[in-house]
Amino acid sequence: MSLPVEKGAPGAPHLTRRGRRKREVRDRIVEAAVALFEKNGPQNTKVDEICEVADVAQKTFFNHFATKQHLVSEIASTFLGELLTILDELRQSERPVDERLLVFFERLADRCEEAGPMHRELVLEMIRVAHMQRAEPMQSRFLHDAFRSLLQDRTTELRAGQNIETLTEMVVGTFYVLMLNWVSLERYPLRERSVAAGRFLAESLTSPSGR
Length: 211
Fold this sequence. Notes:
mainly alpha, Arc Repressor Mutant, subunit A, Tetracycline Repressor, domain 2, 9 helices
């Protein structure tokens, strides 16, 4: 599967004709970039190659993105948004907290495998974006807050006497370790380690009676 591409915006039907055309050109640039990133990786992809595939002039590209890095950040933000959506869906589900942790880390492995080893630098960018406060509603939530919400409404299932912030930091830290190892270590067994990490957290953070 392809890297995530955010098509349009929630308010797109209410845009003017000019606004819709502008959005369509922006989406075309992002789609072209994603296709080239999948083939060559972000670092080896040049702006003029993106413009050629998107069938736009370089001036048009820079009207939408100040630099290629800004484009990379937008694609990484979409990847981050998908992870935040998974966390929010799990939070709203009736699953117990141990299942929530297991499912999240399994889906994390799914998304990274879909992106493929050529796009590990996008993961680094995603981590950087996760620490930035964004204007968009989806990105204004930090990963820490999303993980905390995953645990907070199920505190009766957590081990007694444990601080929610400490438990959240354990989950966030595990996420970052997995991502950084996958980025930096060749042939890192991400799925195996991610599933194992989910199981470990599920057993470590929850009380036996809550499972």
